[in-house]
Backbone:
């Protein structure tokens, strides 16, 4: 194991107004590790991920990727770091105007000098890895949500990144495909020493792939450790979350204020009321 | 406004500086946008320009006949179209058709996380999305304007030929005598400036959409309104500049 951590987050604080969404978080990820970040909706997972990839700037604290401080970098320097990692978005975030094949080829076309034939080979190979051979010529609108996510994964892996960020990689996939994606993550982290940071709600998948887990709540790290340590944690919030119980210390609803703050929009009573309704029913 | 200026600076870099650092324009993307912004708009532009040419000639004929000066109808059609009507009306068509489409397209990409995905893939959205549209617009709006000028003058000819005592050669001769090259150039300068305004306002609106489908609708509307206003004010400014300088 390499002594230098791939990601080093130190005393990270992010405030919106005077409310802190991320409250003094510190952790490190070593090469080859798979870190799973868990936590209820609105606990700051996505905000944390956006700070690590450099698309949001913290109020204070530091984030180092590959030993380089990303919080003070200019946009152009961040681009150099970003070429070394891949990211799978929750929705897949495929470009709707391009075909599946063109989407996977996009990072290769933009960042490498490979010939068209070489790029086609890589695209075919990456799509095969996620079980989507032969889908090159379809548009994202013509495939299902789960397929989009797998194409997003193929695209994130196109440049053989050293580091992979996944935002809910298995939501919307059937159990078999979930297992396929998990095995792919395991193969890449074990075989090729890729480092993975996975944000997920899917506990089966989380315990299958994680080498370390962090649970967030209200912007703080509630618990962290190996999957076994988390499983045997005495913290009631952790137990409630991993067992998926409705009753427990984690509050069922966010307040309107907290919810709207998380969405970064001005409070609008009807939207908040509607989303509270969804929290209760959904 | 700050966003708009930042977009313009970034655009200047990607269009004029980056090609010299080895990141050349994506020519195929530029051509695709040229087809969308320019070629597909040609029928609408033709119809508009023809109607304007016909209207101008009839209005001119009506007034000038009272002075017995209908010989000046081609002059009036030619000069109005080259200097004002051509650039302005064709810009209006392009705002309604392409400006709104660009704002809506980029706005949809923004709300569906596509723009963020590009950034995370270290692909600059200004380079990848805005620069090709900008270059395509900068070429195609003046091209459409030249095309529209022709069709408009043709509309004027149709009226002169059918209703007034002109033969084709006479109409062409008068029209060409009336205008000098500066009339054409001033219209072209206007249409290049309009192209710049239209596409940067549309892209800026699209890239800064917030709040889902509703946000896309709002920023598309504001892109159209803002570019219409900016274009008309700029037209007055440029006409003033040409008037006092020339």
Residues:
């Amino acid at each position: 194991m390499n002594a230098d951590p791939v990601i080093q987050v130190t005393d990270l604080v992010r405030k919106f107004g005077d409310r802190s969404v991320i409250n003094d978080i510190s952790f490190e990820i070593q090469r080859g590790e798979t870190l799973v970040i868990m936590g209820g909706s609105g606990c700051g997972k996505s905000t944390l991920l956006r700070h690590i990839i450099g698309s949001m700037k913290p109020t204070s604290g530091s984030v180092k990727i590959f030993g380089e401080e990303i919080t003070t970098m200019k946009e152009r320097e961040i681009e150099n770091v970003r070429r070394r990692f891949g990211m799978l978005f929750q929705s897949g975030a495929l470009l709707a105007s391009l075909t599946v094949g063109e989407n996977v080829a996009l990072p290769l076309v933009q960042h490498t000098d490979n010939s068209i034939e070489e790029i086609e080979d890589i695209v075919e190979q990456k799509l095969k890895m996620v079980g989507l051979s032969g889908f090159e010529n379809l548009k994202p609108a013509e495939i299902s949500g789960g397929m989009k996510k797998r194409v997003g994964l193929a695209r994130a892996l196109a440049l053989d990144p050293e580091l992979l960020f996944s935002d809910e990689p298995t939501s919307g996939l059937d159990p078999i495909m979930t297992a396929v994606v998990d095995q792919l993550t395991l193969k890449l982290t074990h075989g090729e020493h890729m480092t993975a940071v996975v944000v997920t709600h899917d506990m089966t998948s989380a315990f299958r792939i994680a080498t370390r887990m962090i649970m967030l709540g209200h912007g703080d790290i509630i618990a962290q450790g190996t999957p076994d340590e988390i499983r045997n944690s005495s913290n009631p919030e952790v137990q409630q979350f991993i067992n998926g119980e409705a009753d427990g210390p984690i509050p069922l609803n966010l307040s309107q204020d907290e919810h709207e703050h998380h969405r970064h929009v001005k409070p609008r009573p009807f939207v908040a009321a509607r989303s509270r309704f969804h929290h209760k029913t959904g | 406004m700050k966003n708009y200026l930042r977009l313009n600076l970034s655009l200047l870099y990607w269009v004029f500086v980056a090609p010299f650092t080895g990141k050349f324009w994506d020519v195929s993307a530029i051509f695709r946008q040229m087809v969308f912004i320019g070629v597909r708009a040609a029928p609408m532009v033709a119809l508009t320009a023809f109607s304007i040419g016909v209207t101008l000639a009839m209005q001119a004929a009506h007034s000038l006949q009272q002075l017995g000066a209908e010989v000046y109808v081609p002059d009036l059609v030619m000069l109005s179209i080259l200097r004002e009507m051509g650039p302005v009306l064709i810009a209006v068509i392009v705002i309604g058709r392409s400006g709104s489409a660009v704002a809506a397209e980029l706005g949809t990409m923004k709300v569906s996380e596509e723009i963020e995905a590009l950034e995370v893939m270290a692909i600059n959205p200004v380079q990848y999305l805005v620069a090709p549209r900008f270059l395509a617009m900068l070429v195609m709006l003046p091209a459409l304007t030249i095309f529209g000028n022709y069709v408009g003058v043709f509309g004027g000819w149709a009226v002169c030929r059918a209703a007034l005592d002109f033969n084709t050669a006479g109409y062409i001769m008068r029209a060409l005598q009336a205008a000098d090259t500066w009339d054409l150039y001033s219209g072209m300068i206007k249409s290049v400036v309009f192209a710049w305004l239209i596409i940067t306002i549309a892209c800026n609106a699209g890239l800064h959409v917030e709040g889902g489908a509703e946000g896309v609708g709002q920023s598309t509307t504001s892109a159209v309104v803002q570019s219409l206003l900016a274009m008309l004010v700029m037209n007055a400014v440029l006409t003033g500049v040409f008037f006092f300088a020339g």
Notes: Chain A touches chain B through 23 residues (CB under 8 Å). The mean pLDDT of chain A is 84. Chain A has two domains: 7-250, 251-282.
